[in-house]
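SAMPLE LOG
Freezer: B-3
Tube label: C17
Construct: single chain, 86 aa
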Amino acid sequence: MEALSGPRRARLYTRCASPRLQGSDRHPARVVGELESTWSTLPDTAPVREAHLTILHSATLAVVRKLACENDAGLDAKPVFKALPE
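STRUCTURE (predicted):
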């Protein structure tokens, strides 16, 4: 799983193996969630990025649960924020 976020958009990528998605047992389907706010004037701060990812995580978790992805496609019940190593 990978997530990227900024003041105008956030993306969350994960993989889903589900009996509802043919062939995903061999090649898990890629699930991409995206939140975009092109008119945003919010600053690029950690709280803004985390807020966007929290919204996106909730929506993506609902989708992977609806798809019956194994282990919720690796998503925790609540988002876990980890900065990329520099």
